[in-house]
Structure formats: C-alpha cells, structure tokens
C-alpha cells in the first residue's frame, strides 16, 4: 500500500554467503539507492548481511511485491555481472511486516542495524560496512 512502511527480509539462495565478497555487497547495495532515487521507495534502514537482507522502507509508488521483485532482479543482475558463476542470488520468497501506526521505524531500524553485532560478525556496527540508516 502506498505510504505504508515495511520491514522486508529476504535470503540468498541456499543461504550462501555471497556478500562476504565486498564487491558483490556494494553492487547489491547500489541497487537500493537507485530504487529510492526513482521515487519508488524511501529507505529508512538497509542491512545487507552475508546471506540475507533487511530493508525498512516506505513505499511511495507501485506495490510491495513489484518493488521487492525489482530490487531482487536488479541486484541479482549486478551481482552476476561481477560473478557470472552465481546462477541464483536470492530465494524466491520474502518476509514482510507492515509497521503499525504505533510502531516506530526508528526502533525497528535500530534492531535491524544491530544485526551484525548479534550475529557476532562485528564488534560494533561501525565495524560493519554494508548498512544504511537515514537517522545516522
């Protein structure tokens, strides 16, 4: 729904750790900035983990399914340009949660940003390179 804020999570194919590769991670991250630039979304928080993605955004145009499909398709294309041996980047499905009016996107965003620390892949968030939060 236009104007709704969503927390969307999707995983890599077979939970492979494609985004341990810095080049692949940056290629995927650029796509989400492009979707914002097109006006389709306004990203509040983005966290690209080695084997999955968390994306907190407000939908400004289109539909949720179309937007997520576009993000996955475009990021897959850019990843495969750099690494052609990867056949499938993302799993087909995704998890979404529409934030209720009483939920703060900042609270949800803080939870998302803490992901690398909880997963023991970074000592603090500043040590992890693949994230964005619009309040930082």
Structure keywords:
5 strands; 4 helices; alpha+beta; globular; 22% strand; Alpha-Beta Plaits; 5-stranded antiparallel sheet; 136 residues
What does this structure look like?
Helix content is 35%, strand content 22%. By secondary structure, the protein is α+β, with helices and mostly antiparallel strands. A 5-stranded antiparallel beta sheet has the order 4-1-3-2-5, sandwiched between helices.
CATH fold topology: Alpha-Beta Plaits
Secondary structure class reads alpha+beta
**Overall number of strands:** 5
Given the C-alpha coordinates, what overall shape results?
Answer: globular
Order of helices and strands: EHEEHEHHE
The strand order across the widest sheet is 4-1-3-2-5
The count of domains is: 1
CA-atom Rg in angstroms: 14 Å
CATH homology superfamily name: Transposase IS200-like
- pLDDT below 50 for ≥5 consecutive residues: which ranges? none
- The chain-level mean pLDDT equals 94
Provide the β-strand percentage band: 15-25%
Determine the fraction of residues in helical runs and give it as a percent range.
Answer: 25-40%
What is the CATH class designation?
Answer: Alpha Beta
Sequence-ordered SSE layout with sheet pairings:
Layout: E1 5-11, H1 22-37, E2 41-48, E3 52-59, H2 64-82, E4 95-98, H3 105-113, H4 115-118, E5 131-133
Antiparallel strand pairs: 1-3, 1-4, 2-3, 2-5
């Amino acid at each position: 729904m236009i104007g709704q804020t969503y927390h969307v999570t999707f995983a890599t194919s077979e939970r492979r750790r494609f985004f341990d590769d810095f080049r692949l991670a940056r290629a995927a991250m650029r796509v989400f900035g492009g979707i914002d630039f097109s006006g389709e979304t306004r990203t509040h928080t983005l966290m690209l983990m080695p084997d999955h993605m968390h994306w907190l955004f407000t939908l400004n145009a289109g539909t949720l399914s179309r937007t997520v499909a576009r993000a996955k398709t475009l990021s897959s294309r850019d990843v495969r340009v750099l690494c052609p041996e990867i056949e499938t980047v993302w799993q087909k499905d995704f998890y979404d949660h529409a934030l209720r009016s009483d939920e703060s996107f900042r609270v949800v965003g803080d939870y998302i940003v803490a992901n690398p620390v909880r997963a023991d892949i970074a000592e603090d968030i500043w040590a992890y390179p693949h994230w964005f939060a619009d309040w930082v």
